[in-house]
Amino acid sequence: MATVLVVDDSSFMRMRCVSTVKELGYDTVEAGDGAEAIQTYKDQKPAAVLMDITMPGTDGLQALKEIMAFDGNARVAMVTAMGQQSMVMEAMKSGAKDFVVKPFEPDRVKAALTKLLA
Ligand SMILES: [Mg+2]
Fold it and tell me: What does the alpha-carbon distance between residue 81 and residue 23 come to, in Å, rounded to a whole number?
């Protein structure tokens, strides 16, 4: 079963996302900030990444760019709050394949993972 890296600085959001992803049948690994996400990606090479944009320190955009530089075939979807259109645009230009707006429905996460892993 494919492993999905779930990145969010909010432990509540991360837990919610992890349980949704697990219910869809995927394995998960977690990271609580961008730097940890980059390291975990390099260590574990997950099949897909769900990445929060707003995080202290290395944010999701920076982590996305570093992951894409490490692996041009990385499959990353951004998890965003309302009103982050400009950051979503930059993320899509930087290689993100999809985005999910919080609060998300499980079906939306499922659609994003299906698209990433197709
Ligand atoms: Mg956040």
Answer: 23
Ligand 1 center to residue 17 CA distance, Å?
12
C-alpha 66/C-alpha 83 separation (Å) is 24
Rounded to the nearest angstrom, the distance between the alpha carbon of 81 and the centre of ligand 1 is 9
How many Å lie between the centroid of ligand 1 and the Cα of residue 80? 8
How confident is the model over 81-107, as pLDDT tens digits?
988 999 999 999 999 999 999 989 999
Alpha-carbon gap, residue 82 to 21, rounded angstroms? 21
Output the CA 70–ligand 1 centroid distance in Å. 23
Instruction: Give the number of domains in the chain.
Output: 1
CATH number for the domain harbouring residue 55 = 3.40.50.2300
> Residue 76 is encoded by which pair of tokens?
């990353």
CA of 14 to the centre of ligand 1 (A): 9
Q: Is the pTM of this model over 0.90?
A: yes
